[in-house]
Amino acid sequence: MKDAYNKILTKIEGWWESLILMLPNLVAAIIILVGFIFISRGISKLFLKIVQKFSKNVAINKLMARVLTVIVMIAGLFIALGVLDLDKTVTSLLAGAGVVGLAIGLAFQDPILNVISGIIMSMREPFNIGDQIQSNGYHGTITKISLRSTRLKKFTGEDVIIPNKMVIQNPLENYTLTNFRRVDIACGVGYEDDLEHAKKIAIEAIENNIDHDSTREIELYYNEFGDSSINFNLRFWLNMSEQKNYLAYKSDAIIALKKAFDKEGINIPFPIRTLTIDEGSPLEKVMK
């Protein structure tokens, strides 16, 4: 028992001596950690001031600031462990962090990509709340932009939530950004009509009845000989991007075009089918 007691006492004395020897390093490590806490806060505030000049998304700005704070604190922790001569512990932590990070990355690949896409969107600002866009086959008005998804209200009333990864990886049309839109109307006139006269009347109908962009030319192009008509495309521009106004002006243009053609006696043919009946057929006998 006495030998065991002496061994324990010797062990405790060794620990105490090691603690005394490590005390300066321990104090230095604590000072380093406390210093990095203040440094991380200062860097976070400075980062927010800078990034707010480029991004108006408060949620994403704060997330990026927190990520930067965590990175600075981890760097401080590794330096403090190095001061304590715990190099093996640092190596183990780095290896463990790598394995854990890889596992988390594989398990949460899509959510992480959505968040990264949200951050990129915040920096690039391809659209804002209230903009009318078309993305991934959906056409509507942006109602909410979060870190993971973009909420779209379709013109038919449905709410659509699109993951940010899909928004940034696919083509996107922003009708609000340019603040002007082109109206295209497909129509046709009869083969018996004067094409030059019909073109003149159609352009005048838009000029005199529709509040269009007068700085852009109204265009009419004949494009094909149809089954019962010679078809054309009529195009003009509007100084607006609202879908409701776009549809209203397109409707008014069709009405004005029809009235102008009716007044001038220009025919808008409907599809015609000609039936040829051979003599001696059952139908010919019935008609007789």
Describe the overall structure.
It is rod-shaped and about 130 Å long. The protein is built from nine helices and eight strands. With 288 residues, it is α+β, with helices and mostly antiparallel strands. The strands form two sheets. Strands 4-3-2-1-5 form a five-stranded antiparallel beta sheet.
How are the secondary structure elements laid out?
Elements: H1 2-51, H2 58-83, H3 87-107, H4 109-124, E1 132-135, E2 138-145, E3 149-154, E4 159-163, H5 164-169, E5 172-174, H6 175-178, E6 181-189, H7 195-209, E7 219-225, E8 230-238, H8 243-264, H9 282-287
Antiparallel strand pairs: 1-2, 1-5, 2-3, 3-4, 6-8, 7-8
> Which residues form runs of ≥5 with pLDDT under 50?
none
The mean pLDDT is: 79
Report the biggest beta sheet as strand number plus sense, adding barrel if it closes.
5 strands, antiparallel
Distance between the termini: 134 Å
Supply the number of helical segments.
Answer: 9
Helix content: 55-70%
State Rg: 37 Å
